[in-house]
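Write out the 3D structure for:
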Amino acid sequence: MRYALTLEMFGPMLESVWNLVRELWWAIALIILIKIGHSANFKGHVGEFIINLKAKIFLPKSKYRLFKNVVLPAEEGTTQIDHVIVSCYGVFVVETKNMKGWIFGGERQKSWTQKIYRYSKKFQNPLHQNYKHTKTLQKLLKLDENQIHSVVVFIGDSKFKTEMPDNVTHGNGYIRYILAKNDKVLTDEAKDRICRQLCSKRLRPSLATDRQHVANLKRIHSPKIRQTNDQCPKCGGALVQRKTKRGPNAGNQFLGCSNFPKCRYTAKISAAL
C-alpha cells in the first residue's frame, strides 16, 4: 500500500523530470563537452595532436622519425616525453604547452608567468622540465650533447612578452627550428639504432602506462617524500656545498647542483637536510 502511494505521489514528478531531460539532452551534452574542452588534460591531448600533425606534414618521413607520448623508465620511476623526433641531424626532444594569454619568462628563471587580463598564474619553466627529459634520453641512448636538442613549443592563443631562447618557439616555429639544424651528427646506422632502442625501451602506450606515470608523479611530488640532501630534484645530479661570493648574502653557504651552469638548482642547506 505504501509503495503504491509513493508511486502515485512521485510518479508524475519523475515523468516530468524525464521529459525535461529528453527535451534538453542537447544542452546537457553541450555543457559536458564544454567542461571537457576546458580541462587541462583535454587541452594537452589537443596540443599534442596538433604538434604530431604538423610534424607529419612538414618533416619528410625519409629524414625524420616521430615518436609520440614516450614513457621511459627513470631512476625515480618514469618520465613522459611529449614527442621525440629522430633524424641524422640529432634527436629532438619536444615539450608542448597549450596555453593562452601573455607568457613571461627567462631561460634561467625557475617559474614562468601566464597572464590573462588580471589573472596571473605561475608554471614551471618548461626548459627545466624538458632538461630532465633530455638527460634521461641522452643517458639511455648514449648520445653526446651535440646529438640531442631540447625544443619547447607553445600553441594556442598565447604571445611571448619577454625575449625567449631560439629553442622556445610558438606554432610552426618548432618546425623551423628543427629544419635549421642541417649538420649531420648521426649516421644512418646510428639513427636506425636509436629508433630500435626507443621502440624496445619505452613502456607500451596504454591507459595503464599513463596511470602508472601519473601515480609516480604524485609519489615524487608528495610533501611526505623529501629529496635526499645529495641529489638534485631537477636533473638527478649531485648537490655540492657552495658559498655566495657577491651581494648581500656573500659568505652564506648553500647547496648547488654539480651540473651547473646547465642546471641552476639551489637550496638552503637547512631545507635540504
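The chain has a mean pLDDT of 79.
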